């Protein structure tokens, strides 16, 4: 699930970056379109200027042609003047009145010529200045057009890169989404299977609980009937009324203390970060200590915050000592946990530290409100933060009082009854939940305050970084307090239950009873070790535990091993039967061999006797009465053998054996014995198989119970992760709102900039229009002249 949350955070970050870049891309596209429109307008203006320049060149050519004509005409007039002067000298005497009239006309022509020359010079100067100004404006516009084209190319390249990057990001996010959907589907299937298994385990657990309750009732009735030596007069000092050592309670207590230690370590780290970043913020805002000195109040506040480690670190150390004091060989109750008193003292010192810095925190927020740039919304948020800090300090004071009450029984006996202890634990759980709510509200108000401070014009990057770190420490503080509150509520039944109590008494366990309990435990351990030494060596406990873990690790492997064991036992039983059969066959063959050897020996003896009789007939005749006498002696012995009574393990059998049937009787008896032994072997194998199946079912039930506990723990962790995810979603929504506001501000600034650019362009267009009008007016004047 951690991987899933990491992917979700990455996905949200990429989505935020994509939205940012998309907004920037839209702004850039708009700017590129505007610049393209401007470049097109500039090109049109350049074309118009070229056209006007060509017109002015044509006008200049026409004026130069006209000037040449006028110059020729002036020359002709000068020639005519010279001719007329020569004629005037010749005919001076004729008449003076016509000469005067010629002189007057000559003067008029001279004045007119002088005016034309001056006007021609002035027009030449104006034409030259207009050409220079036109060429200068044309070069400026060309350079401006080149710059705009370069900017448009750069914008197009940036847009292309951003689009490729966005497409890659979208493809990667889509692949991540598909993978996460597949993973979520597999997790849902596993969750359904776990639910089915948990239901089965719950049914088996209910059955086992009912069976255990029945056994407990039966055992309690037996104890009440058969153990009448309880001393009811002095219950507190009864040496026989000592409760047994509860190892399960000790293991649970150590596990709970270990979990609480990890949560306390997270809380201590979050508090250290919160106080340190608060100190840094005091040095930066409202006055930066690197530029000007801060107020004496903030200096004192910073000095107190610098000492926070001396009050926060001992909380972790004292709880670590408390966790180390809880072992399997101790008795963990409020009356015997002495290390809890040191933790309560350090918690009280930290609460006093919070009470000491509370006025300075309130004054610091008031100074922030007194700054000239502080808005009404910021003032309201600072007031809300003041109330949050007061509430936080009051919650810590309540927790201090409850923790001191819990540490009191370890110092003074009979300080608090069991009912009061349960009430204190319940109130402490409620205080932890209120602490989580207070820190959550403070984090929410800090987030809103940070978003408002981002809008201030005098905000610095250093202050932004410190504020982000402070918000991160508040988020970790919120998550750690939420985990502690949930953990305490889940284990409230364990805290309020009495793990040790004397039989038939409602009083708590005192240290004397705890010492006697530990002494009895040591005696029992010594007795068991002595028994182990006296008994033959068995499997070591560590090996047995490892074998048990291996057996309970996987149900499939256990089933396969049980099948293999059953097959091997069947095979062994079959081989034993075959072995017994062949042993019986070997014994029968041995008996037959002995019989054949005996018969062969008898035949050899008879043969030898027959050969001896044929060689010594008289002695044989003499020996006949002796043989007849021996046969007569043997007959009664054979008669005695007719009434033989055979007794064995199978039973009694009356037989009249002969020499040939003795081996058959023995073989029959061995066959019957073998049959019954085989039957006994089959019954033993069936008994062993049933025992192994019972052990297998028992181990499987225990494994299912463990899986149920693991599923419950995973459910708790998943609920915590869901809470953290919701907190992250709220925080990301706040960040999205802040980024949206910042982008809106940027867009407004860009729009203002574009408006100013449009104004400058309109001014330039007006200047160009005025120049055009001026050039047209000059051209009209020249044409009129």
UniProtKB/TrEMBL annotation:
- Transmembrane region(s): none
Subcellular location as annotated: Early endosome
Q: Which UniProt keywords apply?
A: Coiled coil, Endosome, RNA-binding
Q: Which GO terms describe its molecular function?
A: RNA binding
- What domain of life is recorded for the organism? Eukaryota
All residue ranges annotated as the Protein phosphatase 1 regulatory subunit 21 N-terminal domain in the record: 12-113
Write out the biased-composition intervals (Basic and acidic residues): 44-58
- Report residue spans for region: Disordered: 37-64, 542-565, 611-641
The principal localisation class reads other
The protein's matches in Pfam families, at most eight in alphabetical order, are given as: KLRAQ, PPP1R21_C, PPP1R21_helical
Return the Polar residues bias intervals: 549-565
Q: Name one GO cellular component term.
A: membrane
What InterPro entries has UniProt attached to this entry?
A: PPP1R21 (IPR040024), PPP1R21_C (IPR049372), PPP1R21_N (IPR019343), PPP1R21_six_helix (IPR019348)
Q: Per the database entry, which stretches of residues form a coiled coil?
A: 131-204, 701-742
Can you say what this protein is called? Answer: Protein phosphatase 1 regulatory subunit 21
From which organism does this entry originate? Notothenia coriiceps
* High-level lineage: Eukaryota, Metazoa, Chordata, Craniata, Vertebrata
